[in-house]
Each structure stands twice: as C-alpha cells, then as structure tokens.
Amino acid sequence: MTVRSEILQTIRGLVASRADQTFSMIEVLDAMHRRGTQYADQTIRTHIGSVMCINAPSNHAVAYPDIERVERGRYRLVGIPPTVGSGPTPRSVVIEPSPAGLVSSSLDRDDDETTAQTPGSLINPTQLVSVLAVLSSQPLTSRVAGIEATLEGLTADDVRSVLDGGVLSAETAAAALAVRESLGRISDLIHASVICATLPRILEPGERITVRPSLASGNDPSRRYDLETDRRIAEFKVAVWQTGSNVMRKRTVFADLVALAMDPRPLRKQLFVVGVLPGRFLNGSRSPAQSLLERSQQSLRERFAEAYGTQAISVADFRMGPACDVEIVDLLRLLPELRSDLTP
After folding, report:
1. Half-sphere exposure of 100 (CA within 13 A, CB side)
2. What is the pLDDT of residue 126?
3. Domain containing 235: what range?
4. Domain boundary among 102, 117, 132
C-alpha cells in the first residue's frame, strides 16, 4: 500500500464518526503508528501538509486534491479521490516509498481505497490465482534479476522478441493492481482477526463487552481502547518486532501503556503484544518517557504532564511505577497456532 492510500484510509477511519469531519496531522500519525505503519513520520507529514493538500503551496510536480487545511492544524477531506482511469494523467511520475523497500508510481493507480470495500473492489479469484502463480513458480527476485541480465545490451527489436509473451506483462500488472486494491486493508484484517481469536480465550464467565470494540484501525474518541468490558480495558499491538530499533513500534506501544496506566477506573488493564521484545523494551528501557510521547496525541502528552509532571522519568521506571498494574500479555501464548506466522 502506498503512503498516500494508507493516509487516506486512516483519515476515513478517524472522521467516520465526527460531525465536523476534521482531523489533525498528529492524529493521523498516531493512528498510523497504532496500525504499525512502516512509513517515516516526515514522509507522512509531507504528504498531509503538502503533496495531498489542495491549498498548500505548490512545491511538487504532482499533487493530489485529497484534503484541505480548514484552520491552523486542522484538515478535512476534500472528497473521494478519482478512480483509476478517470481524470487527467499526471504529467510526471511521483515515486512513493513502499514498506517493503520497493517503489510505486502514481501512474500505477489512484489509490481510491475506502474504509468499507465496495462490490467493485472485491477480489477477482482469477486475477488472484494469476498473481499467485507468478509469485510461486519462481522467486520474484530471481526472476527479475534474470530478466535484467537478459535485457542488458539488447536493441528494441531484441527486447520485443525476448519479452513477448513473458509473465511480466500488462496483463500481469493489471491483475496485480486489482489484487492489491482488494487486499489493501490486510493489516486491518490481521488486527481484527487476532482480537476476535483472542476474545473467547480471555473473557471470563459473565464478563460483558460494554463499548463497541475497535477491531481495525486507530480508536476514535468514543472508543478509547481496542477492548472495554465491565471488568477490563485492553489494547492490542499485533506488529511483529524485528531485531533492531523498532522506533515507531516503541512509541506506539509506550503510548498505549501510558493511556492504560492513566485510566482511573478499577478495571483490569492489559496490553497484548507479539513476542517478548515489546515487554523487554517496556521493562528495561532507560529512554526518557517524554521523548517517546513527543509524537503522540497532544491530549495524551498533556495528561501525562499533568499527572506526572515534567521531571524526566525513564520508560522502565514508568513501567515499574505508575504502570505497574498494566499486564503485558504475549499473544503467542494465547494463540500458539499463529506462532510460526507471528514469529520473525
């Protein structure tokens, strides 16, 4: 999924229940972090404040009329982005980074992904089979490398004869685009499925879900937690941590820990994570808590400062002190059947 499509999807989730339909940049960043986005904050900020903003200064060869700034720090969607094939073709190509380190061109698609899929966006089995056949018959890296080596030094006529009838064709591109369109919300599907698989294993007899759960993307103001019952509040972080920095994942998991810890109600508080790395970070990090929250929602930062002051406190000290009653639960223990899939 391109950064533009992920931003649009996140915004639609945020404003779905808002009368004024407005949002802030930090709300989008926070929601995307909660979903485990792999895009850099600066890339997201540039798209919201410039590339996708209709009333921003013209600093890019190609811009999209997706959102408008309605007041300082507040934005609103202009409307539904154009569907593939409608409207003028951009005069030049905008390259948007993709999470897997690949690149995607704005000429590939217009990323008209909505929060709820329409019948037209349902996956086409024939196209899915076609794409899977290409990906499974030979490792894509090897296939591409082989074609690259074959093309080097060829003339136009030679290229035509070599590529004619090959699997990397316009038909393959069309099928892959259609499949990507249908699977654009795969992260939401994973998040929702993990929560639904977990619920029967954690809810106690007689326990009642009191607030509509937040199964997919970031919570809206009326649903502060992924799960709220008459006995517990809980957040789910389904992102799989890799060996390395995990900077954005650290920020979002700590923000969830803070939100749970500051809830004054005498409810059980649980933070569900994947594997042991998130717990090790929360229990042992000497990083300043304030620095981990600097890109979280302003309301959370203000509540944190009001409750604990501005004196520096480390993540580990906060975990062992104010957040000592928050349980860190490893989803791999609850869902052992997913261990091979959720283990990096």
Report:
1. 6
2. 80
3. 186-342
4. 117
